[in-house]
Amino acid sequence: MASEGGKSFARRDRLLQIESDVREWWEKEDVFRAESCERPPEPGEKFFGNFPYPYMNGYLHLGHAFSLSKLEFAAAYHRLRGANVLLPFAFHCTGMPIKASADKLAREIQQFGNPPIFPHEVAEELDIKEAQDENGSAPPDKFKGKKSKATSKSSGQAFQWEIMRSFGLSDSEITKFQNPYNWLTYFPPLARDDLKAFGLGCDWRRSFITTDMNPFYDSFVRWQMRKLKSLGKIVKDVRYTIYSPLDGQPCADHDRASGEGVQPQEYTLIKMEVLSPFPPKLGVLEGRRVFLAAATLRPETMYGQTNAWVLPDGKYGAFEITDTEVLILTQRAALNLAYQSYSRIPEKPSCLVELTGSDLIGLPLRSPLSFNEIIYALPMMTVLTDKGTGIVTSVPSDSPDDYIALHDLKSKPGLRAKHGVKDEWVLPFDIIPVINIPEFGDRAAEKVCMDMKIKSQNDKEKLAEAKKLTYLKGFTDGTMIVGDFAGRRVQEAKPLVRTKLLEMGLAITYSEPEKRVMSRSGDECIVALTDQWYLTYGEPEWKKLAQECLSSMNLFCDETRNGFVHTLGWLNQWACSRSFGLGTRIPWDEEFLVESLSDSTIYMAYYTIAHLLQNGDMYGSSASPIKPKQMTDEVWDFIFCGGPYPNSSDMPSSILNKMKQEFEYWYPFDLRVSGKDLIQNHLTFCIYNHTAIMSRNHWPRGFRCNGHIMLNSEKMSKSTGNFRTLRQAIEEFSADATRFSLADAGDHYRDYMFREALKTGFYDLQAARDEYRFSCGSAGMNRDLVWHFMDVQTRLITPICPHYGEYVWRKLLNRNGFVVKAGWPVADPPDLTLKSANKYLQDSIVLMRKLLQKQVSGSKKANRGALQSHH
């Protein structure tokens, strides 16, 4: 439309028309088709760049485009420099999200009808919110995002049906999306259309989708898994894993709505036995052994226990662990334990009686290793019930929190009276030294609290700092002064004390997520002890190879390198099997699927031959001279691993050799661009699996990791309205305007900044042109120089604004061929003398024009004065 709301969009529409025309020129000549050569490329002669395939449960957005633009600009630059460029693109459909969304849609139809009629009060609330969004205003420089009904609910839980409506689907179309495979046929072609409109210089013949819907990619993943297993890189083991009870399976990073990167945190669960007789509230537990269960990270300090802490208004329960043992803790902790083999009924916490923290205050306890024969449960207002078990054991010698809380109770009779705490539960208990720290002595918590002048539990910031200080110094410099391991360093004694507690049955191992994790099904995740298939990341020899690969890679930024070093430091076995979702079956255990991050580690190699396998069809279902069943393990080994010629194969040798030649020409890839959030999983997995499967000369050469797109100095976010899909941005601003903005958008990374390229190649060059035009004055500019300027700037701006560049090249400069392959501008060495002379000339012109202007102004004033006196 040329106008809208009184504004004219004629220039934008002209740009859109130019972009459409240019894409037709490109498509007609197949400009971005990448062909290998028979001889190996010389350094710099070819450029293979790629991008993590996006997940296909919706439209691509500007966040995708921001990261992708870094690859697109780099590829376009190398293409201009004369390199043979391969930039392919594929679409990820493996895993939980699509299946979860399809199932959610089916549940809504079952509950609310087809089409569903959602609850009346929700609809009213949504209508009010929508009206507010429509009538509200936003600053003109802000993206204004109207929240759909799908995301307006106060609960934050969206109706999947409304989300599908927001995609522009009719009710009859939405119904079909109960079948997860319908998502795979709907969204990938739309994403490809959007990327074509964006001007992506992609060889689309090599595009593909994942999952068993693509039989060739399915075969590739099966080979990869069998290969890793034969190398001893995949084993079956029982391990603690982040787990979704609702989904009934582990929840990896890509399966999570929040909590990506969160790992299981392992504690020692101290069993503090409640002494009989029990109070009336615990009467139903008579005849059993009952324990308060306190989760600790410092088992070596248990000798110095003076009491236990509970939250007075916290909610607790007494849960059956065996027929005779009961643990008192929070429901949340009990659920984690139930999935770790600590529940009378596996995976189902059995609560015998619900309790509050107040019910527990004053319970006499016999706690493991404590030098105090009996200690008591006391109130503490800062106990967290969403961390650990809600029961905390108190060691005031080495915990500033415990020291201050105990000090408060001892020194404030009113506080004791408020919670019904008897003097004999508190006053007789003094600090028991456990650890000597050279800097703080054997009562570290007391010393640090006094030094920092911490007065009460309300000094939260100071207490946090004190805790960090005492814990760190205690672990690194401390020496045990009591117990079986007296004289040993704390870092040596810690595991020994823990082992002793576990072996004596005085404690158990307990694990929970480090932070809250939500699955894409809307379920809060726990930690479960699961028996499944794992990739042995972290194994010393394999880790050494990964570190060797990393050391030779170009990462463009120290922050990125540090991220990889940190990840290689902690990454351990990774669960690679799932029982729910879409994907490829584990070849030797078809009950399970390959997890979505584990089918995505070396697929960059698949790009090199995808066009030969799939004949340009992203689903691998069209007629092809190669059949999926012909892609045996021997064939894959021959192509990618330098394996022997597969004599057993009935595939023509010409095709086999062509696939091998394609791979050998393009590999290794030169650059992979990604968001920095993938360092902790996908990108590190990519390094590991390449080092296991491929020869050194095929290991990755470079990763470029960017931060989040910053719009209006804010992270792009659906919730704030600072959000656009790629399609919306192109329709509203045009592709090249969007690309220009993405080049100018910040991500706080200093290296590889296209903002600087934009400044130099566009703004600075424009300023130089303007300066020259100013110097020429009425005489006008030199025609040949202007044409040379247009030639240079067109080439320089082409990686960022290729449609504009192509149009100027063909229509204004009347050049043949395509500017995207026209070559980088050639510049003579700078003549510094000429530059100085030009600077002198510019300054002189400005000075003379100012003097002339002043003289003219003075003359006019004199003439006006004479005229007035005459009258």
TrEMBL record:
Keyword Aminoacyl-tRNA synthetase among record annotations = yes
Q: What is its EC number?
A: 6.1.1.4
Return the annotated region ranges for Disordered.
132-151
List the keywords (alphabetical).
Aminoacyl-tRNA synthetase, ATP-binding, Ligase, Nucleotide-binding, Protein biosynthesis
Q: This chain belongs to which protein, by name? A: leucine--tRNA ligase
Gene3D superfamilies linked to this entry? HUPs, Valyl/Leucyl/Isoleucyl-tRNA synthetase, editing domain
User: What processes in GO biological process is this protein linked to?
Assistant: leucyl-tRNA aminoacylation; post-embryonic development; reproductive structure development
Q: Which family does it belong to?
A: Belongs to the class-I aminoacyl-tRNA synthetase family.
* Record-linked InterPro entries: aa-tRNA-synth_I_CS, aa-tRNA-synth_Ia, Leu-tRNA-synth_Ia_arc/euk, Rossmann-like_a/b/a_fold, tRNAsynth_Ia_anticodon-bd, Val/Leu/Ile-tRNA-synth_edit
Q: In what residue span(s) does the Aminoacyl-tRNA synthetase class Ia domain sit? A: 23-104, 182-751
Q: Which PANTHER family match?
A: LEUCINE--TRNA LIGASE, CYTOPLASMIC, LEUCYL-TRNA SYNTHETASE
Species per Swiss-Prot/TrEMBL record? Morella rubra (Chinese bayberry)
Q: Which GO terms describe its molecular function?
A: aminoacyl-tRNA deacylase activity; ATP binding; leucine-tRNA ligase activity
What PROSITE patterns has UniProt attached to this entry? AA_TRNA_LIGASE_I
